UniProtKB/TrEMBL annotation:
Pfam families per record: ABC_tran
Domain of life, per lineage: Bacteria
Protein name: Phosphonate transport system ATP-binding protein
Keywords: ATP-binding, Cell membrane, Membrane, Nucleotide-binding, Translocase, Transport
Record-linked InterPro entries: AAA+_ATPase, ABC_transporter-like_ATP-bd, ABC_transporter-like_CS, MetN_ABC_transporter-like, P-loop_NTPase
Species this protein is from: Nonomuraea polychroma
Domain spans labelled ABC transporter: 3-243
Recorded GO MF terms: ATP binding; ATP hydrolysis activity
Length: 247
Protein backbone atom coordinates (compact mmCIF):
# COMPACT_ATOMS: atom_id res chain seq x y z
CA UNK A 1 0.00 0.00 0.00
CA UNK A 2 1.27 3.45 -0.84
CA UNK A 3 1.32 5.91 2.06
CA UNK A 4 1.31 9.67 1.56
CA UNK A 5 1.48 12.29 4.27
CA UNK A 6 1.67 15.98 3.42
CA UNK A 7 2.12 18.87 5.82
CA UNK A 8 0.99 16.76 8.79
CA UNK A 9 1.12 18.44 12.19
CA UNK A 10 -0.21 16.82 15.38
CA UNK A 11 -0.67 18.53 18.72
CA UNK A 12 -1.66 17.16 22.10
CA UNK A 13 -2.76 20.23 24.02
CA UNK A 14 0.09 22.74 23.82
CA UNK A 15 2.62 20.14 22.76
CA UNK A 16 3.46 19.79 19.06
CA UNK A 17 4.26 16.11 18.64
CA UNK A 18 4.60 15.96 14.85
CA UNK A 19 5.42 18.99 12.76
CA UNK A 20 5.09 19.48 9.04
CA UNK A 21 5.63 15.84 8.10
CA UNK A 22 5.94 15.11 4.39
CA UNK A 23 6.43 11.44 3.73
CA UNK A 24 5.73 9.05 0.88
CA UNK A 25 6.19 5.30 1.20
CA UNK A 26 5.84 3.28 -2.00
CA UNK A 27 3.82 0.06 -2.10
CA UNK A 28 6.01 -2.82 -0.95
CA UNK A 29 8.69 -0.59 0.56
CA UNK A 30 10.20 -1.40 3.98
CA UNK A 31 10.89 1.60 6.15
CA UNK A 32 12.39 1.91 9.62
CA UNK A 33 11.14 4.89 11.60
CA UNK A 34 14.09 5.68 13.84
CA UNK A 35 14.24 8.09 16.73
CA UNK A 36 14.70 8.56 20.42
CA UNK A 37 11.90 8.14 22.91
CA UNK A 38 9.24 10.80 22.53
CA UNK A 39 10.25 11.69 18.95
CA UNK A 40 6.72 10.99 17.70
CA UNK A 41 7.19 7.57 16.05
CA UNK A 42 4.13 5.89 17.57
CA UNK A 43 2.04 8.97 16.94
CA UNK A 44 3.00 8.85 13.26
CA UNK A 45 1.80 5.23 13.02
CA UNK A 46 -1.40 6.23 14.81
CA UNK A 47 -1.98 9.00 12.27
CA UNK A 48 -1.58 6.49 9.43
CA UNK A 49 -4.25 4.19 10.91
CA UNK A 50 -6.62 7.07 11.56
CA UNK A 51 -6.37 6.96 15.36
CA UNK A 52 -4.89 10.45 15.86
CA UNK A 53 -6.20 13.27 13.66
CA UNK A 54 -3.70 15.91 12.53
CA UNK A 55 -4.42 19.61 13.04
CA UNK A 56 -3.10 20.34 9.56
CA UNK A 57 -2.25 18.29 6.49
CA UNK A 58 -3.64 15.18 4.90
CA UNK A 59 -2.99 11.45 4.74
CA UNK A 60 -3.77 8.91 2.06
CA UNK A 61 -3.19 5.17 2.25
CA UNK A 62 -3.68 3.60 -1.16
CA UNK A 63 -5.64 6.71 -2.01
CA UNK A 64 -8.00 6.27 0.94
CA UNK A 65 -8.41 8.79 3.72
CA UNK A 66 -8.02 7.19 7.19
CA UNK A 67 -10.24 9.99 8.52
CA UNK A 68 -12.69 9.72 5.64
CA UNK A 69 -15.97 7.91 5.13
CA UNK A 70 -16.91 4.82 7.09
CA UNK A 71 -16.30 2.63 4.03
CA UNK A 72 -12.81 4.07 3.56
CA UNK A 73 -11.96 3.52 7.22
CA UNK A 74 -13.33 -0.04 7.18
CA UNK A 75 -11.42 -0.90 3.99
CA UNK A 76 -8.20 0.47 5.47
CA UNK A 77 -8.53 -1.27 8.81
CA UNK A 78 -8.99 -4.56 7.00
CA UNK A 79 -5.82 -4.00 5.00
CA UNK A 80 -3.55 -3.00 7.87
CA UNK A 81 -1.84 -5.34 10.35
CA UNK A 82 -0.18 -4.11 13.53
CA UNK A 83 2.48 -5.55 15.81
CA UNK A 84 2.61 -3.48 18.96
CA UNK A 85 5.32 -2.31 21.30
CA UNK A 86 4.37 -4.64 24.11
CA UNK A 87 2.60 -7.52 22.51
CA UNK A 88 -1.00 -7.57 23.61
CA UNK A 89 -1.52 -11.32 23.48
CA UNK A 90 -4.37 -12.38 25.74
CA UNK A 91 -3.13 -14.35 28.74
CA UNK A 92 -4.80 -17.66 29.49
CA UNK A 93 -5.36 -18.33 25.80
CA UNK A 94 -3.20 -20.44 23.51
CA UNK A 95 -1.05 -18.92 20.80
CA UNK A 96 -3.44 -20.43 18.22
CA UNK A 97 -6.52 -18.78 19.74
CA UNK A 98 -4.69 -15.47 20.08
CA UNK A 99 -3.79 -15.57 16.40
CA UNK A 100 -7.29 -16.55 15.29
CA UNK A 101 -8.87 -13.84 17.42
CA UNK A 102 -7.21 -11.30 15.11
CA UNK A 103 -9.62 -12.32 12.40
CA UNK A 104 -12.63 -12.08 14.70
CA UNK A 105 -14.15 -9.16 12.84
CA UNK A 106 -14.38 -11.37 9.75
CA UNK A 107 -15.90 -14.32 11.56
CA UNK A 108 -19.23 -15.90 10.90
CA UNK A 109 -21.05 -17.84 13.63
CA UNK A 110 -19.66 -21.11 12.33
CA UNK A 111 -16.13 -19.76 12.73
CA UNK A 112 -16.78 -18.78 16.34
CA UNK A 113 -18.15 -22.23 17.08
CA UNK A 114 -15.15 -23.87 15.47
CA UNK A 115 -12.73 -21.82 17.54
CA UNK A 116 -14.72 -22.49 20.72
CA UNK A 117 -14.24 -26.19 20.01
CA UNK A 118 -10.49 -25.55 19.87
CA UNK A 119 -10.11 -25.95 16.11
CA UNK A 120 -9.14 -23.64 13.28
CA UNK A 121 -11.99 -22.47 11.00
CA UNK A 122 -11.52 -24.09 7.62
CA UNK A 123 -10.90 -20.90 5.70
CA UNK A 124 -7.90 -20.08 7.89
CA UNK A 125 -6.37 -23.55 8.09
CA UNK A 126 -4.05 -23.27 5.13
CA UNK A 127 -2.91 -19.76 5.87
CA UNK A 128 -2.29 -20.41 9.56
CA UNK A 129 -0.34 -23.59 8.74
CA UNK A 130 1.77 -21.77 6.17
CA UNK A 131 2.46 -18.75 8.41
CA UNK A 132 3.24 -20.93 11.43
CA UNK A 133 5.74 -22.89 9.36
CA UNK A 134 7.34 -19.82 7.82
CA UNK A 135 7.70 -18.05 11.17
CA UNK A 136 8.65 -21.19 13.08
CA UNK A 137 5.86 -21.21 15.63
CA UNK A 138 4.17 -24.52 14.72
CA UNK A 139 5.23 -26.13 18.00
CA UNK A 140 4.07 -23.09 19.95
CA UNK A 141 0.48 -22.95 18.71
CA UNK A 142 -1.04 -25.16 21.47
CA UNK A 143 0.92 -23.42 24.24
CA UNK A 144 -0.58 -20.85 26.55
CA UNK A 145 1.07 -17.54 25.68
CA UNK A 146 2.42 -16.99 29.23
CA UNK A 147 4.77 -19.90 28.63
CA UNK A 148 6.46 -18.31 25.63
CA UNK A 149 9.66 -16.26 25.61
CA UNK A 150 9.66 -12.62 24.48
CA UNK A 151 10.92 -13.50 21.00
CA UNK A 152 8.39 -16.32 20.62
CA UNK A 153 5.57 -14.02 21.69
CA UNK A 154 6.62 -11.42 19.14
CA UNK A 155 6.61 -14.06 16.38
CA UNK A 156 3.11 -15.14 17.49
CA UNK A 157 2.06 -11.47 17.42
CA UNK A 158 3.55 -11.18 13.92
CA UNK A 159 1.63 -14.21 12.63
CA UNK A 160 -1.51 -12.80 14.23
CA UNK A 161 -0.97 -9.56 12.33
CA UNK A 162 -0.37 -11.45 9.07
CA UNK A 163 -3.32 -13.84 9.28
CA UNK A 164 -5.70 -11.38 7.69
CA UNK A 165 -3.26 -10.85 4.78
CA UNK A 166 -2.55 -7.16 5.40
CA UNK A 167 -1.16 -5.05 2.60
CA UNK A 168 0.45 -2.75 5.14
CA UNK A 169 2.20 -3.94 8.28
CA UNK A 170 2.91 -1.40 11.03
CA UNK A 171 5.28 -2.57 13.75
CA UNK A 172 5.74 -0.42 16.84
CA UNK A 173 8.97 -1.33 18.66
CA UNK A 174 8.38 -4.97 17.80
CA UNK A 175 11.82 -5.87 19.13
CA UNK A 176 11.91 -3.84 22.35
CA UNK A 177 13.01 -5.93 25.31
CA UNK A 178 14.60 -8.60 23.12
CA UNK A 179 18.30 -9.40 23.07
CA UNK A 180 20.09 -8.50 19.81
CA UNK A 181 19.95 -12.07 18.43
CA UNK A 182 16.23 -12.46 19.07
CA UNK A 183 15.60 -8.91 17.81
CA UNK A 184 17.38 -9.74 14.54
CA UNK A 185 15.27 -12.91 14.18
CA UNK A 186 12.02 -11.01 14.66
CA UNK A 187 13.09 -8.41 12.08
CA UNK A 188 14.08 -11.15 9.66
CA UNK A 189 10.60 -12.63 10.02
CA UNK A 190 8.99 -9.21 9.72
CA UNK A 191 10.79 -8.55 6.45
CA UNK A 192 9.66 -11.86 4.93
CA UNK A 193 6.19 -10.46 4.40
CA UNK A 194 5.28 -9.02 1.02
CA UNK A 195 3.34 -6.17 2.63
CA UNK A 196 4.56 -2.59 2.85
CA UNK A 197 6.30 -2.38 6.23
CA UNK A 198 6.79 0.62 8.51
CA UNK A 199 8.55 -0.29 11.75
CA UNK A 200 9.50 2.05 14.58
CA UNK A 201 12.70 1.52 16.51
CA UNK A 202 15.18 3.22 18.81
CA UNK A 203 17.90 0.93 17.65
CA UNK A 204 20.25 1.68 14.79
CA UNK A 205 21.15 -2.01 14.47
CA UNK A 206 17.46 -2.82 13.89
CA UNK A 207 17.05 0.13 11.50
CA UNK A 208 20.03 -1.02 9.47
CA UNK A 209 18.10 -4.16 8.45
CA UNK A 210 15.72 -1.95 6.42
CA UNK A 211 16.21 -0.52 2.95
CA UNK A 212 15.17 2.97 4.04
CA UNK A 213 15.41 4.88 7.30
CA UNK A 214 13.27 7.86 8.25
CA UNK A 215 14.64 9.48 11.39
CA UNK A 216 12.48 11.66 13.60
CA UNK A 217 13.59 14.12 16.21
CA UNK A 218 11.21 16.30 18.22
CA UNK A 219 8.44 15.44 15.78
CA UNK A 220 10.33 16.41 12.63
CA UNK A 221 11.87 14.30 9.92
CA UNK A 222 15.62 14.87 10.21
CA UNK A 223 16.84 12.14 7.87
CA UNK A 224 15.23 10.16 5.05
CA UNK A 225 17.27 7.81 2.95
CA UNK A 226 19.37 4.68 2.88
CA UNK A 227 20.73 3.41 6.19
CA UNK A 228 22.87 6.21 7.58
CA UNK A 229 26.37 5.65 8.79
CA UNK A 230 27.10 6.35 12.43
CA UNK A 231 28.74 9.65 11.49
CA UNK A 232 25.57 10.81 9.74
CA UNK A 233 23.57 9.86 12.79
CA UNK A 234 25.87 11.72 15.12
CA UNK A 235 25.12 14.85 13.08
CA UNK A 236 21.42 14.11 13.36
CA UNK A 237 21.14 13.22 17.00
CA UNK A 238 24.35 14.41 18.62
CA UNK A 239 27.12 12.13 19.81
CA UNK A 240 25.56 11.31 23.18
CA UNK A 241 22.45 9.83 21.61
CA UNK A 242 24.39 7.83 19.06
CA UNK A 243 26.54 6.44 21.84
CA UNK A 244 23.32 5.12 23.37
CA UNK A 245 22.31 3.78 19.94
CA UNK A 246 19.49 6.27 19.76
CA UNK A 247 17.72 5.00 22.84
N1 LIG B 1 -2.52 10.51 23.68
C1 LIG B 1 -1.55 11.38 24.04
N2 LIG B 1 -1.86 12.45 24.79
C2 LIG B 1 -0.92 13.35 25.14
N3 LIG B 1 0.39 13.27 24.79
C3 LIG B 1 0.75 12.20 24.06
C4 LIG B 1 -0.19 11.20 23.65
N4 LIG B 1 0.45 10.26 22.91
C5 LIG B 1 1.75 10.65 22.89
N5 LIG B 1 1.93 11.79 23.57
C6 LIG B 1 3.19 12.52 23.71
O1 LIG B 1 3.69 12.74 22.41
C7 LIG B 1 5.11 12.60 22.40
C8 LIG B 1 5.50 11.58 21.34
O2 LIG B 1 5.02 10.31 21.78
P1 LIG B 1 5.23 9.00 20.89
O3 LIG B 1 4.69 7.86 21.67
O4 LIG B 1 4.70 9.24 19.53
O5 LIG B 1 6.83 8.94 20.82
P2 LIG B 1 7.76 7.73 20.38
O6 LIG B 1 8.80 8.30 19.51
O7 LIG B 1 6.94 6.61 19.84
O8 LIG B 1 8.37 7.31 21.78
P3 LIG B 1 8.71 5.84 22.36
O9 LIG B 1 9.84 5.37 21.52
O10 LIG B 1 9.10 6.12 23.78
O11 LIG B 1 7.48 5.02 22.23
C9 LIG B 1 5.52 12.24 23.81
O12 LIG B 1 5.95 13.39 24.46
C10 LIG B 1 4.24 11.71 24.42
O13 LIG B 1 4.23 11.95 25.80
Amino acid sequence: MRIELADVTVRFGDQTVLEDIHLTVAAGERVALLGPSGAGKTTLLRVIVGAVPPVTGWIRVDGLDPFGSRSEVTALRRSIGCVRQRDDLVPGMTARTNILAAAAYQWRLIDWLTVLRGAVPRRYVRRLTELARRHEIEQLLPASVERLSGGQRQRVALVRALLTEPLLLLADEATSGLDPVRAAEVIEHLLQTEATVVATTHDLAVASCFERVVALRHGRVVFDGAVPEADDLSRIYGRALVAERVT
